[in-house]
Please model this.
Amino acid sequence: MDAGLLAQFVANGLMLGMMYALVAVGFTLFFGVLDIIKFSHGDVLTVGTFAGFSTYLGLQALGAANPWVQVAAVLLVATGSMAILGALIAKYLVMPLKSAPPLNILLVTLMLGTVLRECVRLFFPDGANPKRFPRLLPDDAVALGNFNLRLDSVLLFLAGLAVIVAIHVLINRTKLGLAIRAVAQDEETAKTMGINFTAIVLVTFAVGSAAAAFAGVMNGLYYSEINFGMGLLLGVIGFSAAIVGGLGNIYGAILGGFLFAALQTVGAVALPFASAYKDVFAFAVVIAIMAWRPTGLIAEKTSERV
Amino acid sequence: MSFARTLLAAVALALIAGGAAAQKKEVKVVFIGPLTGGVSVNGLGGRNSADLAVRLRNADPKAKYKYEMVVLDDECKPNVGVQVATKAASDRSIIAGATHYCSAVAIGTVDTYHKFGLPIVVWGAVLPDITYGNDYKEIHRVNGTMINQNQVNAAFSTGQGFKKFAVIHDTTDYGKGHNKYFSENLAKHGGTIVGTFGVTADQQDFNAELTQIKSLNVDAIYFGGLTPIGVRIRSQMEKLGIKGQFVGTSGIVSDAFIEGLGPLAEGALAFREGAPVEKLPGGQFFMQKYAEAKYAEAPEAYGAFAFAAMNLILDTIERVGPDRRKVRDALNKVNNADSIVGKITFDDHGQNTVAAITKYVVQDGKWVVWEDSEYAAGKRKLAGK
Model:
């Protein structure tokens, strides 16, 4: 295999990994503060992407055609509205069920996901069809042999990286992050120390959901196409990535995301059989890793069973 | 309680009176297609067209029965398809049906129709095995199979100078069928396939497959599958800088393909059995009546077939009466019957012998018949030429 081709595969894998990591971070944040799995996460991503898409359509109708303004507005509306949606879900669906068996929350969010998905399909005009997501980023490309490096992909990757760094800084360097970590470690003690538990949970859900919306818009810009079912597989993969990395650990989620993307790429490229089995391969390896390290690659210090 | 009972009695009386007042006996038929999901445009277009056939018949004073069309959604999913097929087939008041756009669904439901003895006419699915893979007397099909379109495709594509192909197909029976018949025919015309990639029908990312295809340096990419992933593949081809020609099947002949891609759809090739609506014997009539009925959605590529299928069913019921067995036997004997898609003749497997395959190319945001396009006239060039 020549170097250009290899570089192309690596670039593809990195982009995929970035999107998976952004979704996985949400799963891991939610689990960190509340010890719950929120299965509607992937569909929140879809709703966020469609919110961004609607913003674009609105701007077009208003005549604001500057692509940079459009990108900023699309991102702002998508992440902002999903932050609110995430907080609402936490407040009205998850928190009331906090002391119920975890299975209940799992089921409730799973159903909520279906509701969100079907709402996009039924209520977005012509929502069942794939939509063309606009190209808002400059699409200059450099061709180095078989390697086609596109400026928009680079920008998207850097933006994703910036979001991950921002979340890292938020968790580790700010007072809010300290509070989130305190709640994650021990809810009771955090409360006695004067931390507003409810507020911290809501903020965490807002941050995680905004990250998912960001991943959704990134997905749309990267593939130039969105559809109502896009969040389904992304959600499952993001969840697996979070589990493999070690649920509750942000770095684990990021590692898991990139690992999953790498597995898929290897599955499609290096295996002798058809690429149809790349997901089978990736998930099979995930199962193997989980058998080997049940708490994930980077485990929480005090491990909990899911 | 007594009030409720009085009310019930009143309703029952009203129903009986209403039934007696209507002189014509009511007969139920069923339409099944994908009304939601990625290919729903085709399903909705088919439903409207079948509905049009029923409406026109009900408006006809000479009709012996009053028809009611039950509409069911198979979502283009085999499991859902079998459920709704069972629902329709087990309802004895339903006499016959025009069913299925998706091959993967149709091939899954034929056993159900056979078991319950419901005669059906397939209006859109193209997998050969739906009619040829069994000996069921209940199964008929007005549209052609994918064998013919892939023969024409292979001959045409190689004639245009595309010799080296990569194939991407979805791993349903539908995509695998396309792959099989295209590969067989391409070899006969001197073309070669340098890489075949099976993908799942809901895959999002095709970069890994396409990067490999890029390194193979092909003249064209053949895609055997439906619109949603066709849109993704075409769009990701461009992002990777792949210059080859995009050759599709009847599965992408829909407005949704063009809408999903915008200018990128330009120059995509596809093949479909039957002449385009406006060139059909009854095309003018159909389009005019369709426009008059003011449906929200266009009839799409297979609307005319759905209309013809439903119309054939109604004709048969008029002739032999609302009895499943009689309708089934009468359908099997259909020979040279007039329809808007041309003469319909069922062979011993219930397959209509449709001759013509139409070649399509996207030009300025429309599916244009190849012979009428600027590409054929030499004013525009296909990709990679």
Summary: Chain B touches chain A through 35 residues (CB under 8 Å). Chain B has a mean pLDDT of 90. The CA atoms of residues 161 and 385 of chain B lie 8 Å apart. The domain at 26-144+277-354 of chain B is CATH 3.40.50.2300 (Rossmann fold).
